[in-house]
Each structure stands twice: as structure tokens, then as C-alpha cells.
Specification:
It comes from Hortaea werneckii. Residues 23-34 have a biased composition (Polar residues). Helix content is 17%, strand content 35%. With 298 residues, the chain is of the alpha+beta class. The strands form four sheets. Strands 1, 5, 6, 7, 9, 11, 14 and 15 form an eight-stranded antiparallel beta sheet that branches. Strands 2, 3, 4, 10, 17 and 18 form a six-stranded mixed beta sheet that branches. The radius of gyration is 21 Å and the shape is globular.
Length: 298
């Protein structure tokens, strides 16, 4: 059981640990979501690392100007893919920021009078057909996220503040619950860009990051392979059959039974505290019994 937990922990931490800090004087970076294998990657990649993804590339030599160019590439097999960019605008008093659908116009929401208010602007950036790239321009942002959804646009809401209500995997009543979505995280400040693929709370839609700096040095975080999420799901189902635990309950499907995402064990117990409540009880008792009568050397 311990080895299974370690494997699952590695699966959810692998990409977070590989997250590259993107240095200052950035020239180019790319983010991709894919449901087909990458085409024309910035750096050669082992075929086993290729994935069905949406790709994000940021192309800019403009750290001093306060703007940054991001290229969003659709490497899925769907023509209905949307991108979103959100964050806190560092040069505008940390105001809530969303990029509008044209990929250029900033949207700073006004303070709504009630919770769950709709956005007043269209912030769904259509990525077009497979292989298409959309160029976006953003200001300096903290706590930035680049979101992608396939098949259906995401719903973002506003609470008084204003505070952005983002898609949540923890709320089954969230309007995005049955939407296939994912995101990459980044901060772009006056010094440099930090970016990573976040596979801490869940895994699902594969996303890759590519960056080329002003010296033409390429960095790449390839993301999961196109079969990665299903492989994890199959492993969890098999483990449930072996030990009767709630591993398979971490799998989230859409209403048609298609795989959407897999929750981390920690996310699963956030929603259902009893799922693994006694998982370690027998092992802990064995350890306690052993070392209550035997010396423990550290």
C-alpha cells in the first residue's frame, strides 16, 4: 500500500517538480493543450513524452515594456477549444484581470453588488482548428493562470471585491464540473517569468509549456502523454479491485462516461473525509507495537 501511495504522489508531483522558472529577458514561451501529438515542438522530445495537449508559447522580448506576448496553440483534435488568461495586474493596483476574447484587450471587472455575478465582457478566446495558434498580449500579472477548455466555454463569476470565482474541482455544483478543463500557472513581474504546469490537485487535460529566451535557449515542460490520464485511471480501478478502497472514486467522468480528470487523494478527502480515514491505521498500529518494545535508532 505504501508503494502505491508513493507512485500516486509521484504522478501528481512529477510536473510540479519539473516546473521551470522562466528567466528574465524572455523571448519566447509556448503553452499547448493537446489531444493529438505535438507538431513542430520547439525542442526535440522523446515520442513517449508527446501528448494530446493545448500548447502555450509566449513570444516577447518586452520585459521592460510591461507587456508579454503569449501564443496559445491548439494541438487537440477538436475545433472547439477556448483559452483564458487571469491574474492580478501588478501595474494596476493588483486589480483582478481577465483578457478579453480578442486576446489583446484587458478587462478589469467592476465591483459587483451581489455574489455570483456574470462577467460583463466575453473572455473566452477561441483557439480555432487543430494546429492553430492565437497570439495574446498581457500586462504584468501575479497569480496568473492560463486556462483551457475543450468542447464548452468555462464560466467565471464575480463576487463583491471584486473577487474572481474560478472553476472549481471541489464543488460538484460548479457550472464547470462536467467541462474538460485545465490550467498552467505563472507570474510575470518586472524581473522575470515563473511558470509551471500544476498537477497538484488533479490531472486531466494535458498541457505543455515551451520557452525560448533571448539567447535562443529552449526550455520545455512536455506535460502528460495523451494516454497518461487513462493509464492512471486504469491503475486506480485495478487498485480498488485489489484492496476495496476508494481509489476509483478519484476518477471524474462527464455525463457520457468520458474521462475528465483524476483528483489527487488529498482533493478526494477534501470532499469526502472518510474515504481514506483508516487507510494507515493497521500500519501505524504495527509500527507502534514494534517500537513500543524495540529501540528505534535514528
Amino acid at each position: 500500500m505504501a508503494s502505491l501511495m508513493n507512485r500516486i504522489k509521484r504522478l501528481f508531483r512529477r510536473n510540479a517538480d519539473r516546473a521551470d522558472n522562466i528567466g528574465s529577458k524572455t523571448k519566447s514561451a509556448e503553452t499547448t493543450i493537446t489531444e493529438e501529438q505535438h507538431q513542430n515542438p520547439v525542442a526535440p522530445v522523446d515520442p513517449a513524452e508527446q501528448s494530446d495537449q493545448v500548447q502555450q508559447r509566449t513570444t516577447a522580448d518586452t520585459m521592460a515594456s510591461g507587456t508579454f506576448t503569449i501564443q496559445l496553440r491548439n494541438d487537440t483534435n477538436s475545433s472547439t477549444v477556448y483559452g483564458y488568461i487571469t491574474g492580478l495586474a501588478l501595474d494596476s493596483g493588483n486589480r483582478v484581470f481577465l483578457l478579453q476574447a480578442d486576446g489583446k484587450t484587458p478587462y478589469y471587472p467592476a465591483n459587483p453588488s451581489s455574489t455570483g455575478s456574470k462577467l460583463e465582457k466575453n473572455c473566452s478566446i477561441p483557439l480555432g482548428s487543430p494546429g492553430n495558434t492565437v497570439t495574446c498580449t498581457i500586462p504584468r500579472l501575479a497569480g496568473g493562470r492560463i486556462w483551457f477548455s475543450v468542447g464548452t466555454p468555462l464560466t467565471f463569476l464575480l463576487n463583491p471585491g471584486p473577487a474572481l470565482v474560478e472553476p472549481s474541482i471541489f464543488n460538484p455544483a460548479d457550472p464547470n464540473h462536467y467541462t474538460n478543463f485545465g490550467f498552467a500557472e505563472f507570474t510575470y513581474n518586472a524581473a522575470q517569468v515563473f511558470a509551471n504546469i500544476s498537477y497538484v490537485d488533479f490531472v486531466g487535460l494535458p498541457i505543455s509549456l515551451d520557452l525560448t529566451d533571448t539567447a535562443n535557449n529552449a526550455q520545455r515542460v512536455a506535460g502528460m502523454t495523451n494516454y497518461g490520464p487513462q493509464t492512471i485511471a486504469n491503475g486506480l480501478i485495478a487498485q480498488t479491485r485489489r484492496d476495496g478502497r476508494r481509489w476509483s472514486s478519484l476518477i471524474v467522468n462527464d455525463k457520457a462516461g468520458n474521462l475528465l480528470r483524476i483528483l489527487s487523494p488529498n482533493s478526494g478527502i477534501t470532499l469526502n473525509p472518510d474515504w481514506f480515514q483508516t487507510y494507515w491505521t493497521d500500519y501505524v498500529n504495527q509500527v507502534y507495537t514494534r517500537y513500543s518494545t524495540n529501540a528505534l535508532t535514528v
